[in-house]
Amino acid sequence: MTLTVPFRFIACAYFPDTLAKPMTQPQSGLNYALHERNIPAGMGMRKLLTVASIILVLLTAVEMTARQRGDQVNFPFTSDMWVGQWYRLDSLPDNQTVFIGASRVQFGLIVNEWERQTGVRPLLLAWPGSPPGLILQELAKRQSFKGTVICGIAPPFSFVSPRFPVHDWTQRNLAEAAVLKTSLAFHLSYQAQYFLKPRFRCLNDAAFSPIAMLYERWPIPNREGLLTPLIFPFGATRDGDMQMRFTDEMETNNKKQEFIARIQKASHLRLAHYGPANTDSLIRQYTEDVSTIEKRGGKVIFLRPPSDGHFRAFEKEHYPREQYFDRLVKASGCYGIHFEDHAELRDFRCVETSHLSKRDGIEFTKRVVEILQRDQIID
Q1: Does residue 219 form part of some domain?
Q2: Domain containing 137: what range?
Q3: What pLDDT digit, counting tens, does each position of 126-148 carry?
Q4: What region does 333 belong to: left with phi over 0, alpha with psi -120 to 50, or beta?
């Protein structure tokens, strides 16, 4: 038989002085009241108003600066923007015209001009650095879709290895599109963007980013061969349709164009490092997706927008059209437009060797529509 003796009984027997005093009583004789924090008697309303006033003055100054220099509405480069566009497909006709591709499509195919020429307002799903094959595949999976896809081909991004880090941007967009439809936070944020951005020019993170401003204005020379970060200065805006346009300064400032060119050349090092994708499997996937869309009554048109200068030289060396664009068009059986094949498209010059200016984007869109209508590809 085991006899259980209460702990307090044992403690009292062996340490009577310990339990005779309250446990909370200080044993060291220190006055703990001296170390207590003084709790403010008020809510610090004066400090709150002071901070709020400073913030208001700063925002007002930024707003005035943005409006004086003519900054346009600029939506952020976030997945939410693309996901919101993708969700719009749910409420659009099944035969909707869609633009996919990289940023050359965002600068070179103008939604408003396309609508003006055709009477059809397209949905822009292009994204910087985007390989269009990933989006084309999702459209093929969409059982209800039987529209027209204008698939912009920028060879270094359309045919580069899937290990190229920029591809993560598009994959992240698709991953978030799969889960955000029921997210209240997403829908509130998305609607707030469309309400606030057109009203307040100061809400332009690209134009007033301290890091980007310092990187542009006080550049530190890079080591030879260094893979520099892809931090672009503010030189273009993105509207609610994800249409991109260069700022007036970007189109006329040679120093800014040269700065962009240095960043682009660093991206060439990355592209060359990762190399092209497995062309056979990539074109096979394109062909399967095109066939799926065409069986439902849709069509796919491949478009090669202009490039020039060092970017064009890089493309000719690493992605010659005979092995990539021409092969894709032939294997898929799709109608294709390469800017070099049409006199009316051949003479466009890019702002920074890769993207068209505001005026040229409108004119390029108009001429592409004329070619497609002349060849009876679209109405």
Answers
A1: no
A2: 76-202+276-374
A3: 999 999 999 999 999 999 999 99
A4: left
- Other CB atoms within 10 A of residue 74 CB: 22
**Type of residue at 29:** G
Global pTM value? 0.83
Q: How many domains does the chain have?
A: 1
pLDDT, tens only, 164-216: 988 899 999 999 999 999 999 999 999 999 899 889 988 887 778 787 777 77
Residue 268 amino acid letter: H
List the alpha helices (DSSP H) in 69-90: 79-88
Q: Is 305 in a helix, a strand, or coil?
A: coil
**Is residue 8 one of the residues assigned to a domain?**
no
Tokens of 235: 């030189």
- Residue 257 or residue 328, greater confidence: 328
d(CA 188, CA 190): 6
List the CATH number of the domain containing 357.
3.40.50.1110
The answer to whether residue 49 sits within a structural domain is no
Of 338, 332, 260, the closest CA to residue 303 belongs to 338
In a domain, 263, yes or no: no
Q: Among 3-12, 187-196, 246-255, whose mean pLDDT is lowest?
A: 3-12
Q: Cα dist. 316→25, 59, 129, 268 in Å?
A: 84, 47, 18, 13
CB 113 within 8 A of CB 372: no
